[in-house]
Amino acid sequence: MRHLLAARPGVGATGHITQSGRLGYTSITNDLPLIIMVRRGHKLIQSSGATLRIDEGEAVAIAAGQAIDFENVAAEDGDYEARWLVIDPAVLADFTPPAEAQPIGGCQSLGRMPTGLFRAYEQAVEALTDEDDIPDLVARHKLGELLAWLASAGWRFPPVSQESFTTRIRRFVGANPQSAWSSAEICAQLAVSEATLRRRLSEEGTSLRAVLTDVRMTHAMQLLQCSRLPVSEIAARIGFESQSRFAIRFRHRFGFPPSAIRGHRQAQPG
Hints:
Layout: E1 5-8, E2 12-19, E3 22-30, E4 34-40, E5 42-47, E6 50-54, E7 59-62, E8 66-73, E9 80-87, H1 89-93, E10 102-103, E11 107-111, H2 115-129, H3 136-152, E12 155-156, H4 165-174, H5 183-190, H6 194-203, H7 208-226, H8 231-237, H9 243-254, H10 259-262
Parallel strand pairs: 10-12
Antiparallel strand pairs: 1-2, 2-9, 3-8, 4-7, 4-9, 5-6, 5-8, 7-11
């Protein structure tokens, strides 16, 4: 049975999104190469000044490091549903695409994926979620097959460039968002002084507080979409003792309360 949310360090991660109603999200950053397949409803993505629409049964590939605005729109007779899959840079580095495959520079609509690419995507999802029977070595192979099928369709993800301080912080804080993460701990992870950290983040147009808040709120958004955990537990998992304070911070980040994502499912047990 597939998990709603699963991750394998050094391989990739995947999640099944379910959302009630129509909601928009601004400045969402994906730190890793990403493929999203819409299963119900449709997705609107603002990228490079244009709006990209991904309809039910279609997919989109998004290069690493993109900050995008998007809107998930539920089907007329139900919810919005999608499956996302991210690929670890280690897997990407082991794959050599053919020269004729075009690099994905931002957001690339894949339309209705060809049969081979679709099957490879489903098998990669299965490999990431079935930890009991599929070892990491095989899971990495399945994600490599997905990259090969993507290249056969004419597209490839570019190598992940040298990571900014912001991306590096997002990476290790995202692996443990419930931690209290002091600036001293983060400086130790990066092997820099606090003055250097402040200067580098300022050059990147952000601050440590802003990065920590965004990582935690984005993680909470994923848990709301991809799990059945109660809001109180999600708040605890990103370091909030108070559910009400979490809800206030979440609304400030996204413009709507946590309950808006689940809608009518909020009252259901589990």
